[in-house]
């Protein structure tokens, strides 16, 4: 079964449009509940950042935003752009004509895969900055969690500048935007391993998360619960 999975992943031209592109637009208008983009992102659920230019021509990222409609409506996400306890938060409001980068950091991808063969084949096919799941496993251990959730994936992405989470299911691969919690891409798969390493491929036997750490479970069920 593993050989079949590897043969499938070799045919990755089928995945050519899997990863959404990073795009740029501007803020058309600012309302009480969010903003409107001059040009919508290609996929609803994509997150991006708002960049403000000050009078001295300096630029900074001020907000994170998530598109909610194909007409370009977006809501502002209340999470820090850069995680640092010693840095003050940016207080600049969003203005019309501010630049917006959709798919910000989408080249930084965390891959959750069932085994090392699937992980290696997938990462070798795409020129992405792959964030190794070992780092995520250590993060979960420090957080006292033993399985992935949308909540801890969002916190991990914020801390480690991750733009997308690629999750390999038995019948499909999906791309999760951790800041919106929405699926922004998926492709059908077949011939994946019958079982996977629990909770996902990493170089540790288990995630030690205190007294409540789980040593046994099902990879595909765990991925399906995210």
Question: Can you lay out the helices and strands and say which pair or pack?
Answer:
Blueprint: H1 2-10, E1 23-30, E2 35-37, E3 47-53, E4 59-67, E5 73-77, E6 99-102, E7 108-112, H2 116-125, E8 129-131, H3 133-143, H4 150-160, E9 164-168, E10 172-177, E11 182-188, H5 219-224
Helix pairs in contact: 1-2
In short:
The chain is α+β, with helices and mostly antiparallel strands and 226 residues long.
What helical percentage do the residues reach?
Answer: 10-25%
Count, helices: 5
Average pLDDT confidence is: 87
Strand content: 25-35%
Keywords:
single chain, 27% strand, 226 residues, 6-stranded antiparallel beta barrel, 5-stranded mixed beta sheet, alpha+beta
Q: Care to describe what's here?
A:
The chain is of the alpha+beta class. The protein folds into two domains: 2-19 and 106-224, no CATH class; 23-102. Helices cover 21% and strands 27% of the residues. It is built from five helices and eleven strands; from the N terminus they run H-E-E-E-E-E-E-E-H-E-H-H-E-E-E-H. It has helices at residues 2-10, 116-125, 133-143, 150-160, 219-224, and strands at residues 23-30, 35-37, 47-53, 59-67, 73-77, 99-102, 108-112, 129-131, 164-168, 172-177, 182-188. The strands form two sheets. Strands 1-2-5-4-3-6 form a six-stranded antiparallel beta barrel. A hairpin with a 4-residue loop joins strand 1 and strand 2. Helix 1 runs parallel beside helix 2. The protein is elongated, with a radius of gyration of 19 Å. The model is unreliable at 1-15 (pLDDT under 50).
